[in-house]
């Protein structure tokens, strides 16, 4: 079997394994090692399998990932999320769909100290949906808002999935984190606009809350200072060139840990937070190791280079090819989780996209936005399943109905990112060294 055919067979097998439910880490590692065995023999295959895990994790810059994960879990177990939601409710609860808007703001606050979409969705399913139901909100709207709000954690810094993208394609993690900020803010604005329009069209979906005084509003800000401090340290430190991403993540972790101690976090909760950090970090790095072995196998087959040559040689505008890639990711998002989708496609798609002249930082943010959309798209919108899992009394189809209006908003956001790349690139292009 010639190398190119072997590479195609490897990709087909990988897709088959993933559809069968085999974890991405095991599927990629098994196919990668098997392919290397066939092509290069046992010495090379097992030698690379032994070297790659160490070579792709024994790096100072990669320690940013477990630190960002630790920030999220410590914030979760310290109960910092509750304060952010309460503050948002006091400030915007009176507006049309105010409690739903407050959920978006609180989800963004949690995203700024988390980077884990499913964790955010799980937290606000427990916290926000009962509050909205008690206030007479439509359960469908409440479920949709929580599922959509959870996706913000994939884009707003510190984003774990942007860090993973940077590790795989060997791009600056600091530039990627800064690049995600403005698109994240645009997403918040669009989500709030969707809520406002939906509620204006049908006011019975979300009754207005009582007014709150300015004194109440100012007092509520004391509950979010820690989140603002973490965001300021991470983004400000990176942008001004005072700290590396790893150093800013370490300081951010220290701030969250200090807040947790101030809130008298129990040793049991601290232990759970650290254990969840370790488990999540180990899972992510296992996936990275497996994919790196698979990527090395594909490199030996020459398939990525061949696909890049074919794509860049097509007699069509690069924008048409980009549109095809976007459609492909939207369709894949209906059946694959975000991390698996990214790991499966990047080895082949990334070289072709860069060959067409697109910026790798911009493409990383666009890819994460497409992954966000996949997390709320049927039939396998992971965030929707999380809402249903935490609240089995809310039927899955009801959750998907709730997110449907937001899919129009997502199309608008993707259009903005494609039409105006500077929205993504302005901050990373102006960061200080």
Brief synopsis:
By secondary structure, the chain is mostly helical. The chain contains 22 helices and no strands.
- As a percent range, the share of helical residues equals over 70%
Number of helices: 22
Helical/strand content category: mainly alpha
The shape is globular
Average the pLDDT over all residues and give the rounded result: 85
Q: Poorly predicted ranges (pLDDT <50, ≥5 residues)?
A: none
Structural write-up:
The chain starts with a helix and ends with a helix. The protein is built from 22 helices and no strands. It is globular and about 70 Å long. Helix 8 (about 140-150) packs across helix 20 and helix 8 (about 140-150) packs across helix 21. The protein is mainly alpha-helical and about 425 residues long.
Please outline the helices and strands.
Elements: H1 3-19, H2 24-40, H3 42-55, H4 64-77, H5 80-92, H6 98-111, H7 117-134, H8 139-150, H9 160-169, H10 173-179, H11 181-201, H12 214-220, H13 225-239, H14 245-262, H15 267-301, H16 303-312, H17 318-332, H18 338-355, H19 360-374, H20 382-390, H21 396-419, H22 422-430
Features:
433 residues; 0% strand; globular; mainly alpha; single chain
């Amino acid at each position: 079997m010639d190398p190119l055919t072997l590479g195609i067979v490897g990709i087909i097998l990988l897709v088959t394994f993933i559809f069968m439910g085999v974890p991405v880490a095991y599927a990629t590692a098994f196919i990668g090692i098997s392919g290397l065995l066939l092509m290069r023999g046992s010495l090379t295959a097992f030698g690379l399998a032994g070297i790659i895990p160490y070579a792709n994790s024994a790096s100072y810059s990669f320690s940013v990932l477990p630190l960002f994960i630790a920030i999220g879990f410590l914030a979760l177990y310290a109960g910092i999320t509750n304060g952010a939601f309460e503050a948002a409710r006091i400030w915007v609860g009176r507006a049309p769909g105010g409690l739903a808007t407050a959920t978006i703001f609180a989800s963004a606050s949690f995203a700024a100290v988390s980077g884990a979409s499913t964790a955010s969705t799980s937290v606000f399913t427990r916290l926000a949906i009962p509050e909205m139901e008690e206030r007479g909100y439509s359960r469908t709207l409440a479920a949709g808002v929580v599922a959509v709000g959870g996706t913000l954690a994939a884009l707003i810094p510190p984003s774990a999935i942007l860090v993973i993208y940077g590790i795989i394609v060997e791009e600056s993690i600091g530039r990627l984190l800064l690049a995600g900020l403005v698109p994240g803010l645009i997403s918040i604005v669009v989500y709030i606009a969707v809520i406002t329009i939906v509620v204006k069209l049908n006011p019975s979906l979300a009754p207005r809350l009582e007014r709150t005084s300015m004194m109440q509003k100012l007092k509520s800000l004391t509950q979010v200072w820690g989140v603002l401090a973490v965001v300021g340290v991470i983004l400000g430190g990176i942008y001004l060139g005072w700290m590396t991403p790893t150093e800013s993540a370490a300081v951010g972790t220290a701030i969250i840990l200090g807040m947790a101690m101030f809130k008298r976090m129990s040793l049991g909760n601290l232990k759970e937070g650290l254990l969840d950090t370790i488990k999540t970090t180990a899972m992510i790095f296992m996936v990275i190791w497996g994919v790196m072995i698979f990527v090395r196998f594909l490199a030996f087959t020459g398939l990525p280079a061949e696909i890049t040559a074919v794509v860049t040689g097509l007699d069509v505008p690069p924008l048409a090819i980009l549109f095809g890639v976007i459609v492909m990711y939207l369709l894949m998002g209906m059946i694959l989780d975000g991390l698996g989708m990214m790991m499966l496609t990047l080895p082949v798609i990334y070289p072709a996209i860069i060959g067409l002249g697109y910026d790798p930082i911009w493409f990383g943010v666009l890819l994460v936005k497409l992954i966000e959309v996949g997390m709320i798209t049927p039939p396998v919108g992971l965030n929707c399943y999380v809402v249903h899992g935490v609240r089995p009394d809310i039927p899955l189809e009801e959750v998907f109905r709730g997110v449907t209006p937001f899919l129009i908003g997502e199309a608008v956001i993707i259009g903005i990112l494609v039409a105006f790349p500077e929205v993504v690139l302005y901050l990373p292009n102006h960061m200080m060294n």
